[in-house]
């Protein structure tokens, strides 16, 4: 089996496994955790599975991880359910509102960028792509891609200064 075959299988089935686990659990964070557990178990036993049976086997591993979690969760009982509700929340309503307002302003500013700059910025800064991979996705040279990102960031800084100057 190829040394990077788990990565190939991960790329091929990660979304399917996540959607399946989310449908079972109805909890985004739990589905992500169980997906991690599924691929960890797959890493341990992948060589025992036939190549043409990988997808059904991964779904079975995911289901078993879900069942293991539910059994374990049913055995752990929280005695003081209201404890965390009594703790003060670290954020004030004002700070939440201000952060939300800044995020909406940033989203509006990003939306006003020229399409190529917006695309370049989103690929690298928001989706974590490397410059090289993002340039390949956009089908531009690496120096051209870096210029697009630089200009997009520059426009966002100018917009932020303009907004702060008028407040």
What does this structure look like?
The structure is a single chain. The protein is built from 7 helices and no strands. Helices cover 75% and strands 0% of the residues. The termini are far apart. The protein is mainly alpha-helical and 167 residues long. The protein has helices at residues 5-25, 28-45, 54-75, 93-111, 115-126, 131-138, 142-166.
Question: How is the topology of this model organized?
Answer:
Layout: H1 5-25, H2 28-45, H3 54-75, H4 93-111, H5 115-126, H6 131-138, H7 142-166
Helix pairs in contact: 1-2, 1-3, 2-3, 5-6, 5-7, 6-7
Helices, by number, come to: 7
Q: Bin the helical content.
A: over 70%
Query: Biggest sheet, open or closed, and with what strands and sense?
Result: none
Compute the CA-based radius of gyration. Answer: 23 Å
pLDDT < 50 runs, ≥5 residues = none
SS class = mainly alpha
Task: Tell me how many strands there are.
Answer: 0
Sequence of secondary-structure elements: HHHHHHH
Proportion of residues in β-strands? under 5%
Question: Judging from the principal axes of the Cα atoms, what is the shape?
Answer: flat
- Beginning-to-end CA distance, first to last residue: 61 Å
Mean pLDDT: 83
Task: Give short descriptive properties of this protein.
167 residues, mainly alpha, 7 helices
Short characterization:
The chain is mainly α and 167 residues long. It has helices at residues 5-25, 28-45, 54-75, 93-111, 115-126, 131-138, 142-166.
């Amino acid at each position: 089996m190829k040394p990077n075959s788990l990565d190939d299988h991960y790329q091929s089935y990660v979304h399917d496994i996540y959607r399946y686990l989310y449908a079972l659990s109805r909890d985004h964070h739990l589905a992500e955790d169980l997906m991690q557990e599924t691929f960890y178990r797959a890493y341990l036993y992948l060589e025992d599975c036939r190549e043409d049976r990988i997808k059904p086997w991964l779904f079975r591993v995911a289901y078993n991880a879900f069942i293991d979690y539910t059994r374990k969760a049913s055995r752990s009982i929280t005695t003081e359910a209201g404890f965390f509700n009594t703790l003060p929340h670290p954020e004030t309503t004002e700070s939440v509102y201000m952060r939300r307002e800044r995020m909406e302003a940033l989203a509006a500013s990003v939306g006003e960028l020229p399409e190529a700059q917006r695309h370049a910025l989103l690929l690298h800064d928001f989706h974590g792509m490397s410059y090289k991979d993002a340039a390949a996705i956009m089908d531009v040279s690496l120096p051209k891609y870096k210029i697009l990102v630089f200009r997009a960031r520059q426009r966002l800084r100018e917009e932020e200064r303009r907004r702060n100057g008028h407040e």
